[in-house]
Design brief:
Layout (H helix, E strand, L loop, with lengths): L9 H15 L6 E3 L8 H6 L4 H25 L4 E5 L8 E2 L2 H9 L3 E5 L9 H11 L5 E5 L4 E2 L11 E2 L1 E2 L1 H6 L7 H10 L3 E5 L5 H6 L6 E3 L1
Helix pairs in contact: 1-3, 5-7
Length: 219
């Protein structure tokens, strides 16, 4: 969304794509999950009176729009990608097939998973934890608009306490809303650490992978 109030800011998408390319060039295998809140938030739609299941499906379609935009820009900078969707939409994306996704990674392609889990009532965060578990990922990175985990919103509260390292259980027990409880619980069960970093800062993701810069780690 960038500085826009709604929709896709191509400049921001290009910036993120270039950040991903830096990691790709270091020979990491990468799976991407992209939310759809810049276009439509299922839970907000439900609050406005749309049926919750219908609202969540609309949110899944929004994630697919974002996935296709990211694919297009990544491929324009010579990063090969494939989009796999949890909902069948054969004309624009492959269906999610785990073995096929693994094969794409083996062929040095980035796999972008669209449409969440394919089920209503599950967030994009939960989809990320689910796909990370299925693909045997070594780490989950949540690249967001803050540079880690705080006890309260650091944008609104200057006295917010920063957590560099924190356990899955503490995130749940302290009700720290960095990811939903289902996602945290699934990552804990699969023993996949989670790094939280700021996507708007240049090199923040690759720095977090290398243990540099400001980020939080859940493990």
């Amino acid at each position: 969304m960038g500085s826009l109030n709604y929709g896709l800011d191509v400049k921001t998408t290009k910036f993120i794509a270039n950040e991903i390319k830096i990691i790709y060039q270091k020979k990491y295998q990468i799976c991407l999950i992209i939310g759809g809140g810049n276009i439509f938030r299922g839970i907000s739609g439900a609050a406005e009176g749309i049926d919750r299941s219908t609202s969540d499906y609309m949110g899944m379609l929004a994630t697919t729009i974002n996935a296709l935009s990211m694919q297009s820009i990544l491929e324009s900078i010579e990063v090969p990608t494939r989009v796999q969707a949890a909902i069948n939409m054969a004309q624009i994306a492959e269906p999610y097939i785990r073995r096929k996704a693994v094969r794409h990674l083996e062929k040095n392609r980035i796999v972008i998973f669209a449409a969440g889990t394919g089920n209503p009532f599950f967030s994009t965060d939960t989809a990320a934890a689910l796909r990370a578990s299925e693909m045997n990922c070594s780490v989950i990175i949540k690249a967001t608009k803050v540079d880690g985990i705080y006890d309260k919103d650091p944008i609104e509260n200057h006295d917010a306490i920063f957590y560099k390292d924190i356990s899955y259980s503490d995130v749940i027990n302290k009700n720290l809303r960095v990811m939903d409880t289902t996602a945290i619980s699934l990552a804990k069960e699969s023993k996949i650490p989670i790094l939280i970093t700021n996507i708007n800062k240049k090199n923040s993701v690759v720095d977090a992978i290398n243990g540099l810069g400001k980020y939080s780690k859940i493990s």
